[in-house]
Amino acid sequence: MPHRPSPAIRQTRPLRRDNSATFVVTADGSPTLTYQWQRNQVNISGATSATYMIASTAASDDGAKFRCVVTNSFGTATSNEATLTVQPPPPVLLTEANSNLAIAIDSVTMFRDPFPLTNPFNFSADGRTRVSFFALNLDLLPGETMSAVTARAEDSMLNVYPMTVEFVGSVPAVPGVSEVTILLPGNLPPGQDVLVSITLHGQASNKARIRIK
What we know:
Layout: E1 3-15, E2 20-30, E3 34-39, E4 42-43, E5 51-54, E6 65-72, E7 75-78, E8 82-83, E9 92-93, E10 104-106, E11 130-136, E12 149-154, E13 160-170, E14 177-183, E15 193-200, E16 203-204, E17 208-211
Antiparallel strand pairs: 1-2, 2-5, 3-4, 3-6, 6-7, 6-8, 9-11, 10-11, 11-14, 12-13, 12-15, 13-14, 15-16, 15-17
């Protein structure tokens, strides 16, 4: 017997493999049903089948609400609303190939490690060394500042040293790569390697090794 549609979204599935997300609506009704997907209650152009897929989600998609309006000649019904949660990948500190040795330079001299804890070429008031690391997946959300990024070092005895992040920004002409400038704590143990990691939005990076003079 012909009747108006009664839709429901039965699946919301972000796929970690390729960062896509798929929404599927099921609806009963006759005669033939038509579909119109909406994002935040606004029609999505071309999204007119029972399945809607976002090929590649972005941080800006987090929290977006999707629903489907299903229609036939007997009426229109709107599905339940599904909220998309996007979990961005953790930050990654760049290291040399097949190594955990950080690609990092003194922010003043541009030299590689080993780094001194104080630097006579650093004309800042404290004379301490700042090290620039390079990272992937370090995109700040609108309105966020470098304070969203935290850093720490770990020595061979597993002692942890909080570190101050002084700069986060994109590397010119290198898409997707960010520069992170970190102040070396004065109490780092000299003459050994330490492992540095950064954290953004609760997700910690890999541990990248630098050498301290």
